[in-house]
Each structure stands twice: as structure tokens, then as C-alpha cells.
Hints:
four-stranded antiparallel sheet
Amino acid sequence: GGGGTGGGGAADGGVGIPGTDSFVTAGPSVSGTSIAGQDLNGAGDTVVGYKSTSGAGSSAYLWNSTGGVNLGGLDGLLYSYAHGVSDDAGVVVGYSSGTINSVYTLRAFAWTPDGGMQELAGLVSGANTQASAVSGDGSTAVGISNLGSAATGFYTPVRWVNGTPEDLLAGSSV
């Protein structure tokens, strides 16, 4: 993402948020909730990841000096995970997952404070997709999309430029 996958910071393995006493840890807590930081922005003052509660699914989250923001999920999918954040923390990417019509489904998303969570289209209709990183300016995301239905087909690297998917292997001999 904007700052790459972060690490270290707090003595217990958490990711420290500069200027605060806050940190994000990976692993279960006493309350049955686990929290994981996946990326931080260029300034290092915003962390994205997810918060999971036993029996209640997972939600994509953004944490900064003012606290945490639940980014929600895409309609019909129980889980969401944030994996990348732009330098100014104005764009977060990741994926929502769950079962739709008995088929395990993955859908990439881009989240903005003004627009909320929006699905990033796959290379074909109904394709499983995951977004894993976003450019510093938030205009380009990268991840994977399959080339079949949600249940079949192989995955290929994809990038979304302003929300439009592009197959990165198109025309390649790989």
C-alpha cells in the first residue's frame, strides 16, 4: 500500500501509531476478539486491517490517532479485510468474503470516506477478486481476479486503474 506492510512498534508485537498510545496487535484477546494490522500509510499514522469477533465475522478497519473506523462489508458477505491504504489514508482496498448461493465468494473493494465501500469489478462477471495494495495517490490498486465463475477458473494478477480492471498477463506467455 502507500507505506508497505508495517511491522514492529510495540513491545508485544503490535504496530505502533505514532503520537498515540494506540497499537494494533495480531491474535486473540480475552474477549474473543482478534485484531490484525495489514498495512500503514506513507506517514505511518494510519493502520488498516481487520477486527474479528468470535461468531460475528470480521470487519475491515482503519485505525488512526482518533480511534478505529469499521469500514463495513459488501452486501451479502459476512467478512471483510483491509489490506492496503493510500498515502493520505483516503483510499483503502481489500476484500469481502462469504457464501452466496452455497458458493464461497470473494469480492475486492475500494473504500473512501465519502463513498464508503464499493466493489471493484472482476475481469469477468461473477469472478472472485481480491485487492491487496493501492498506490500512494489511491488511483491504482492491485490484486487478483479469476477468469471463470466464482467457484472455478484460475487466478490472474489484475490492477484497477480508477476502478477499471486490467489483466496484467493479457498477451503474456506466462
